[in-house]
TrEMBL record:
Chain ranges passing through the membrane: 20-39, 46-67, 111-129, 173-192
Gene label: agsA
Molecular-function annotations in GO: phosphotransferase activity, for other substituted phosphate groups
Keywords tagged on the record: Membrane, Transferase, Transmembrane, Transmembrane helix
Biological process, per Gene Ontology: phospholipid biosynthetic process
Protein name: Archaetidylinositol phosphate synthase
Coiled coil regions, renumbered to chain: none
GO CC term (a single one): membrane
EC assignment: 2.7.8.-
Keyword NADP tagged: no
Pfam family, one: CDP-OH_P_transf
Length: 199
C-alpha cells in the first residue's frame, strides 16, 4: 500500500512551496521543527478526543506530513543536505510518531493497544534506517510506511469527527489495531528484505 512510490509526484507538487520557503529564508531544520510542533498539536487534539478535536488533529497531521516532505526538498534545493539534518529529521519524526499515536490511544483510554501500535510504528521505521546503517539502501517499502500511516491517521480521524463509532466501535481503535498488527508485519518484511540482501 506504500505511498512512498509517489514521492516524485509529491516533489513536483512541493516545488512552489519550496520556492516560497526559500524566498522567506526558511531552513530545512526550521521546517522539521515546525512539523514536529504540528505533531504535538495533533497528539494533544487526539487526547481531547472530541469530534472537533479529531477534525483539527486530522488537519495538523496532514500539515505535518506535508512539511516532513518539504524539509528534505528544501535541503536539496538549497544544497544544504547533511547527515546532521537527516538525523534531526528522523529523530523528530520518531518523536512525532510517538506523540500522535500515544494521543490517539490516550483519547480512547487504550494504553495497552497504544503500546502495541507505537512499537509497531517505531520498529517499522527502525528497520528502514537500520538497513542503511549496515550498508544497504534505506528501506521505505512494506505494507505500511510513514506516508501510509499519516494518510490513514488523517483520513480515519477526519471520519471519526463525523462518525464517532461504527457498529459500536471507534474507527480510531481499529486504526490502532492496524498499526499494531500491520506495523509489526511491515517491520518483519523490511528485516527479511535486508537479511536476504546481506546474505
Amino acid at each position: 500500500m506504500t505511498l512512498d512510490q509517489f514521492r516524485p509526484v509529491a516533489n513536483r507538487l512541493l516545488a512552489p512551496w519550496v520556492r516560497a520557503a526559500k524566498a522567506v529564508g526558511a531552513t530545512p531544520n526550521a521546517v522539521s521543527v515546525v512539523a514536529f510542533g504540528l505533531a504535538i498539536g495533533a497528539g494533544a487534539a487526539y487526547y481531547v478526543a472530541t469530534p472537533l478535536a479529531y477534525a483539527g488533529g486530522a488537519l495538523l497531521v496532514f500539515l505535518n506530513g506535508w512539511l516532513d516532505l518539504m524539509d528534505g526538498a528544501l535541503a536539496r534545493e538549497l544544497g544544504t543536505e547533511s547527515e546532521a539534518g537527516d538525523m534531526l529529521d528522523h529523530v523528530l519524526d520518531r518523536y512525532a510518531d510517538v506523540v500522535v499515536v500515544s494521543g490517539l490511544a490516550a483519547g480512547l483510554d487504550q494504553f495497552g493497544l497504544g503500546l502495541a501500535a507505537v512499537t509497531g510504528v517505531l520498529l517499522t521505521s527502525y528497520l528502514g534506517t537500520q538497513a542503511q546503517a549496515v550498508g544497504l539502501d534505506r528501506v521505505y517499502g512494506g505494507l505500511l510506511g510513514r506516508a501510509d500511516r499519516l494518510a490513514l491517521i488523517g483520513a480515519t480521524t477526519a471520519v471519526t469527527a463525523l462518525v464517532p463509532t461504527v457498529a459500536g466501535y471507534s474507527p480510531v481503535a481499529a486504526l490502532l489495531v492496524v498499526f499494531a498488527v500491520v506495523g509489526h508485519f511491515t517491520a518483519v518484511q523490511r528485516f527479511v528484505s535486508a537479511w536476504r540482501q546481506l546474505a
